[in-house]
């Protein structure tokens, strides 16, 4: 008899969030200086398949209200791995076009929820384009999985991020106070008005586009954050705000959804984060004032129960009827114009398929009516931004990437850390 394990309610919520316009798939590209041999790839995939979730499919009734993971009795690696050659000239633009095409294609739901393209002809080297459904795990969980597959030790581990959830109340009064605070937070989130209309919002189509930035030294980002009197996340969110301001013809303050990873005892796969709304001071002309405003809002997010309440709401959505979940997703996503996520990757260079990974870029999916995502990932001392967008809203995502790079350069100049 097949061994089945119920899908966690939060993971079920991400599973049912899939739509034609927003597939819930985390996309990551790993680049290499040379092409990858078949033998080294086989060994890598063998290690990947030691993680049971990558050999499992989801079985459920039509509504996915009683979904479960089960070992796929017909698992076939060839259905999950495809070797392709990037069209000439094999440059970054060609790679971005290929990634956008893959982003526009949902994963097959009758098999394990992942797919890898082994891409030859990426310059003089190669790339692995890894697509994993959000129901399998969040960004931090997948980074930990990478470390396991690569055999990296603790020296390569990412810095722990997120908030630590409060312990259980020890008195009745503490329980009542927490319940009241969470109820008030939920009421505030429910009554938050829709985000202001800009060109960043609109009817979504099926086609996605993707772009990535040049590498930015992590030491530069940390120095900028210290000089500004804030944290790295504050500085990066302020840089996104400046980039959006530079891009919009009529800059107006907008909101972003930001994941807040929740530390806890749960490990391995799965989703361990809530979401919070971050007001972005896009209408503020002063770069330093934007930094101060973003830091203030980020400090509020860290101390408020918004993320933990959102985590509970996601779990409730995973148990609700599909129609009720769709209503909830639409209600909450219309209150923001974009997603901003920052995932700490391995601090040291890792090897995959017997080669050093030269760079990593990630693109987190957006849900509901949100059609723009900024995904930041640090790896081996460098930070890269990945921008993914609905092609109808933002045909050229490079425009926003260029705005972000200019904003970082502007911060360096204003804070006295200009490049030599």
Features:
single chain; 420 residues; alpha+beta; Chloramphenicol Acetyltransferase; 11 helices
Describe this protein's structure.
The longest helix has 20 residues, at 172-191. Strand 13 and strand 14 form a beta hairpin. This protein is 36% helix and 23% strand. The chain has eleven helices and 17 strands. With 420 residues, it is of the alpha+beta class. It folds into two domains: 4-156, Chloramphenicol Acetyltransferase, CATH 3.30.559.10; 172-346 and 360-414, Chloramphenicol Acetyltransferase, CATH 3.30.559.30. Mean pLDDT is 88; it is low at 153-166. The strands form four sheets. Strands 8, 9, 10, 11, 12, 16 and 17 form a seven-stranded mixed β-sheet that branches. The chain has a five-stranded mixed β-sheet with strand order 5-6-7-2-15, covered by helices on one side.
Layout of strands and helices, then pairs:
Elements (H helix, E strand, L loop, with lengths): L3 E3 L2 H8 L8 E8 L5 H11 L7 E4 L8 E4 L9 E5 L6 H12 L10 E9 L2 E9 L5 H12 L21 H20 L16 E5 L3 E2 H11 L3 H16 L6 E8 L11 E8 L6 H17 L2 H14 L2 H12 L4 E7 L6 E2 L2 E2 L2 E5 L8 E8 L2 E9 L7 H17 L6
Parallel strand pairs: 5-6, 10-12, 12-16
Antiparallel strand pairs: 1-4, 2-7, 2-15, 3-4, 6-7, 8-17, 9-17, 10-11, 13-14, 16-17
Helix pairs in contact: 1-9, 2-4, 6-7, 7-8, 7-11
Low-confidence segments? 153-166
- CATH-derived architecture of the largest domain: 2-Layer Sandwich
Measured distance between first and last alpha carbons: 66 Å
Number of helices: 11
- Principal-axis shape equals globular
Residue-averaged pLDDT = 88
Write down the secondary-structure element order. Answer: EHEHEEEHEEHHEEHHEEHHHEEEEEEH
CATH superfamily caption of the largest domain? Nonribosomal peptide synthetase, condensation domain
CATH level-1 class of the largest domain: Alpha Beta
Oligomer: single chain
At the third CATH level, what is the topology name of the largest domain? Chloramphenicol Acetyltransferase
Structural class: alpha+beta
Relative strand content: 15-25%
Number of strands: 17
* Rg, Cα atoms, Å: 21 Å
For the biggest sheet, the summary is:
7 strands, mixed
Percent range for helical residues? 25-40%
Number of domains: 2
């Amino acid at each position: 008899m097949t061994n089945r394990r119920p899908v966690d309610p939060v993971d079920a919520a991400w599973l049912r969030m899939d739509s034609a316009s927003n597939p819930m798939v985390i996309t990551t590209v790993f680049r290499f200086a040379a092409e990858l041999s078949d033998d080294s790839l086989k060994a890598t995939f063998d290690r990947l398949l030691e993680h049971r979730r990558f050999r499992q499919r989801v079985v459920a009734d039509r509504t996915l209200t009683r979904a479960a993971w089960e070992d796929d009795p017909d698992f076939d690696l060839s259905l999950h791995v495809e070797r392709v050659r990037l069209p000439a000239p094999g440059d970054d633009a060609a790679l971005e076009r290929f990634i956008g095409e893959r982003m526009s294609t949902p994963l097959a739901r009758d098999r394990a929820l992942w797919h890898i393209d082994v891409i030859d002809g990426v310059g003089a080297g190669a790339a692995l384009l890894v697509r994993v459904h959000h129901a399998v795990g969040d960004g931090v969980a997948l980074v930990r999985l990478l470390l396991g597959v690569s055999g990296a030790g603790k020296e390569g581990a990412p810095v722990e991020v997120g908030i630590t959830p409060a312990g259980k109340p020890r008195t009745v009064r503490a329980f009542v106070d927490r319940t009241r605070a969470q109820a008030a937070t939920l009421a505030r989130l429910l009554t938050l008005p829709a985000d202001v209309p800009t060109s960043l919002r609109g009817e979504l189509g099926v086609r996605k586009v993707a772009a990535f930035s040049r590498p930015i030294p992590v030491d530069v980002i940390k120095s900028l954050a210290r000089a500004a009197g804030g944290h790295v996340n504050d500085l990066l969110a302020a840089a996104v705000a400046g980039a959006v301001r530079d891009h919009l013809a009529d800059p107006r303050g907008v909101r972003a959804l930001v994941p807040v990873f929740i530390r806890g005892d749960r490990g391995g796969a799965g989703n361990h984060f809530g979401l919070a709304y971050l007001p972005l001071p896009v209408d503020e002309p002063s770069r330093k004032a934007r930094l101060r405003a973003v830091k203030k809002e980020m400090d509020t997010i860290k101390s408020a129960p918004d993320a933990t309440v959102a985590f509970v709401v996601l779990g409730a959505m995973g148990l609700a009827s599909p129609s009720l979940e769709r209503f909830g997703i639409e209600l909450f996503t219309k209150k923001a114009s974009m997603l901003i996520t920052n995932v700490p990757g391995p601090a040291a260079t890792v090897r995959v398929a017997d080669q050093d990974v030269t760079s990593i870029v990630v693109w987190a999916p957006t849900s509901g009516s949100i059609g723009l995502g900024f995904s930041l990932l640090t790896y081996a001392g460098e930070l890269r931004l990945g921008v993914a967008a609905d092609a109808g809203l933002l045909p050229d995502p490079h425009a926003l990437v260029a705005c972000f790079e200019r904003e970082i350069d502007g911060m360096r100049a204003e804070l006295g850390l200009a490049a030599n």
